[in-house]
Amino acid sequence: MGSRTQEITDKKERKDFFNVAIATRDVYGETLAELGNIKKDIVVLDADLSGSTKTKKFSKLFPERFFNIGISEQDMIGTASGLSLTGKIPFASTFAIFATGRAWEQIRQTVCYSNLNVKIVATHGGLTVGEDGASHQSLEDIALMRVLPNMTVIVPADGFETSQVIETITDYKGPVYVRLGRSKVPSVMPEGYRFQIGKAFTFNIGSDITIIASGIMVSAALDAAAILKNKGVDAGVINMSTIKPLDTEALLQAASKSRLIITAEEHSIIGGLGGAVAEFLSEVQAIRIKKIGVRDSFGSSGKPDELLKFFGLTSDNIVETALSNL
Amino acid sequence: MTDLIQSRDIDFLKEQARRIRISILKMLTEAGSGHTGGSLSSADIVSALYFYKMKHKPLEPKWEMRDRFILSKGHAAPLLYAILALTGYFDVNLLHTLRKLNSPLQGHPSSKLLKGVEVSTGSLGQGLSIANGISLGLKLSNIRARVYCLLGDGEIQEGQVWEAAMTASHYSLDNLCAIVDLNDLQIDGRCSDVMKIAPVAKKWEAFGWHVFEIDGHNMEEIIEALDSAERIKVKPSVIIAKTIKGKGVSIFEDKVEYHGITPTPEELKIALKELGENG
User: Fold this and answer.
1) Measured in Å, how far apart are chain B's first and last C-alpha atoms?
2) Annotation: CATH topology of A201-325
3) Which of A123, B75, B202, B253 suits A114 as a labelling partner, its CA being 20 to 30 A distant?
């Protein structure tokens, strides 16, 4: 962590997102606006969604450092790349599916191949986009970003963690993808928690199972672990907020102490957190891994809670999976 | 390595273009694969940029005040390597390693491997967006440097080019000068047969650019356009340079098949003779 980050942390006016249910995109907007005061090299780009991605706040405060590129995500990524080549720290934001899908090849060829200091912070990841439906619900973005060399992939679990992620990646040099959500999420990370790239947070390791979760599913995993405890099952939870590079040490600990690993993510079970965990553990340890996530399908319109139930992404689904596989 | 000599002298610039062509042909023949036609067609333009127009320091490639050159048509990598070697960014002997394993001279330019390459290119249609970002960044930092971006004519079939064309105009990037190498050929044939790009000048004009149309092999016209572009304010400039693919070697000129194949040793001999080079 750089000293300038410490400076922000020490500032009285710094907003504290600990212990509040809040959408991670809202925290992004607030944090970016605060950082903009201190780090004059930060520039922000958006593709006509600044009201939704919450970069609008930055645009109002620092209009000369905000570039709306219009509805052209490929050009946005290229422009961000060019800005990084002049020493700026560009944050490029739009919805997750457009950032990673529409502009994937620009991210590969320009950002990652040249290893540029571009931060892609996308909102509206996963099912909890809600009513807009499948076209806007990104269930593939983690897979698309994780496969790229030089890319770091982060999915914060709550507002408190999001604010730290945004501060941290400002000081990190290199391509980063951060996936944020549209809907409010409960606060889950403990007071005093400090985010580090590549370092998972282990709430506890269960002797029966450990649930490896990311994003909004960390909250569901904690609920599931509490329910399982009442049923006599010792369940642990790890928040794997950095999906790349994966915290393999934390995984090895869980795999050596638990009998079953469950992964939980608001993403396709193909190529995301579950895929990453399975890829790693299958080479080093004989342990069963069950994946909770969207099972190779598109999303749908509906209320976020209804969607999570419909697609099997609730604490109850985790509990059932645990009980039927132990 | 030699010190960089820059001049507005037409004969000097023509001579540098000739040396660039010789270097391109030699390295491509040795490599046995690569893009001949499109490297030769832009040689005069690139000679004018690096030996006259651009402020740059080959021994200090990251000099903050430098003018930037983005080769959006990344397959013309041999052209970029030739000019960088001739202006002293790296040892000319490195040109023998083109396209070989572990060489910094990759088939398409890689900025992480080679000094003087501003950004990796090769996938068409992406360079102008990058050039825009650099232009914006330079303006924000109050650096009075210019950005040049060389595009192929087939390349402007990519939609992203027109997204970028809008952005450059919207943000009034008058420190940016795009150059379109209009040689009318792409891998599959004439541009007009594969996918019509005409009217090229009217398209750029409609997108809010100041357009110069020149003969891309006439050194006077090239430097005149580069000088004039610098005086255009509030809008970006584009130089549409009518060129001949394979220019300089009659057996390659305007031949679609020489887009992506290299000279045989026999063809190289003929080519070098035509360019007034023995051996």
Assistant:
1) 22
2) Rossmann fold (3.40.50)
3) A123
